[in-house]
């Protein structure tokens, strides 16, 4: 059965949804997005995603086309219409389709923004085989633009990074700039050494992960030590364990970096505990 999607105020069968070839998301990657997980038919961390969406829009000088309450209603309606128990809701907002190609931003008074949402079913999202076995990652140079804190649809290099990892027989890539790890291709990166969780501090260099914020909060509530600073690949390879966080993968252990096994080469206790805490606590407050 075809999915029902949302496009500019309408709920449509996915095969009937159309976006103009002049849309700036298509021509200029001039848009932002968010992905919200669904567990048990409820939305995880939705308020955080809504706030970050507003920050991204503001940073690009784009308007906020829908209030948070309206966005929540659309998310819930799509989850219901598509019978999503576990999965994802993807949201994308672009600067719209002015009717021709131009580098200059169109007048928002005459060019409405394009708003798209769709669901992706991911049965048993919380029961991940990747989390059970752990990820293998490689390191690659970080050559992205300087505003990685804005969640734009400019995802070509992260996609290339994932393909580099696949070609190397790995699961993902960690990006490195000036000798230090910035983040994964679609996730925030962490190491654990001596019981201390280490992750890069927030700045324009990395995405301000919604899952990252929740996981660090839960870690501190569980009396775990958190240190926000940069770290190198060599330091990561010498760590006791490592992991990533994202809205779609929650907390997932990393067991190998550039061919070097971490610890015993299996998921470590800190990552496994944080994953369970995050999933349990997120279910309690999901909308």
Any overview of this molecule?
The protein is α+β, with helices and mostly antiparallel strands and 287 residues long. The chain is built from 8 helices and 15 strands. The chain has helices spanning 24-28, 46-59, 68-81, 129-133, 156-167, 210-221, 233-237, 269-285, and strands at 4-7, 10-13, 31-39, 42-43, 87-94, 114-121, 135-141, 172-177, 180-184, 188-193, 196-199, 225-228, 241-246, 250-257, 260-261. Strands 7, 8, 9, 10, 11, 12, 13, 14 and 15 form a 9-stranded mixed beta sheet that branches. Helix 6 (210-221) links the parallel strand 11 (196-199) and strand 12 (225-228). The longest helix has 17 residues, at 269-285. It is globular. The two termini are 26 Å apart.
**Beta-strand content bin:** 25-35%
Largest sheet: 9 strands, mixed
What value does the Rg take, in angstroms? Answer: 19 Å
Q: What coarse outline follows from CA principal-axis ratios?
A: globular
Q: How many helical stretches?
A: 8
DSSP helix fraction: 25-40%
Order of helical and strand elements: EEHEEHHEEHEHEEEEHEHEEEH
The helix-and-strand class reads: alpha+beta
Record field, number of beta strands: 15
Q: Ends: how far apart? A: 26 Å
Low-confidence residue ranges: none
Mean pLDDT value: 96
Topology of helices and strands:
Blueprint: E1 4-7, E2 10-13, H1 24-28, E3 31-39, E4 42-43, H2 46-59, H3 68-81, E5 87-94, E6 114-121, H4 129-133, E7 135-141, H5 156-167, E8 172-177, E9 180-184, E10 188-193, E11 196-199, H6 210-221, E12 225-228, H7 233-237, E13 241-246, E14 250-257, E15 260-261, H8 269-285
Parallel strand pairs: 7-8, 7-14, 11-12
Antiparallel strand pairs: 1-2, 1-6, 3-4, 3-5, 5-6, 8-9, 10-11, 10-13, 13-14, 14-15
């Amino acid at each position: 059965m075809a999915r029902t999607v949302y496009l500019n105020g309408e709920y449509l069968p996915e095969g009937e949804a159309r976006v103009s070839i002049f849309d700036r998301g298509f021509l200029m990657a001039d848009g932002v997005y968010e992905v919200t997980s669904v567990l048990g038919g409820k939305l995880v961390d939705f308020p955080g995603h809504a706030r970050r969406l507003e920050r991204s829009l503001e940073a690009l000088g784009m308007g906020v086309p829908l209030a948070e309450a309206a966005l929540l209603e659309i998310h819930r309606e799509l989850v219901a219409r598509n019978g999503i128990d576990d999965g994802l809701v993807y949201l994308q907002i672009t600067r719209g389709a002015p009717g021709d190609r131009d580098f200059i931003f169109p007048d928002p008074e005459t060019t409405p923004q394009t708003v798209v949402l769709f669901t992706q079913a991911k049965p048993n999202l919380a029961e991940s085989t990747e989390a059970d076995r752990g990820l293998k990652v490689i390191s690659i140079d970080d050559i992205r633009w300087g505003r990685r804190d804005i969640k734009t649809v400019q995802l070509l290099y992260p996609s290339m990074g994932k393909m580099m990892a696949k070609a190397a027989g790995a699961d993902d890539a960690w990006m490195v700039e000036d000798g230090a790890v910035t983040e994964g291709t679609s996730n925030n990166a962490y190491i654990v050494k001596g019981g201390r969780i280490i992750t890069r501090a927030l700045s324009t260099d990395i995405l301000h992960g919604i899952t990252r914020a929740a996981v660090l909060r839960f870690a501190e509530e569980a009396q775990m030590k958190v240190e926000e600073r940069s770290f190198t690949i060599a330091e990561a390879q010498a760590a006791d364990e490592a992991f990533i966080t994202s809205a779609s993968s929650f907390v997932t252990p990393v067991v190998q970096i550039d061919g070097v096994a971490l610890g015993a080469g299996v998921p470590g206790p800190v990552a496994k505990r944080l994953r369970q805490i995050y999933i349990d606590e997120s279910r309690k407050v999901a909308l």
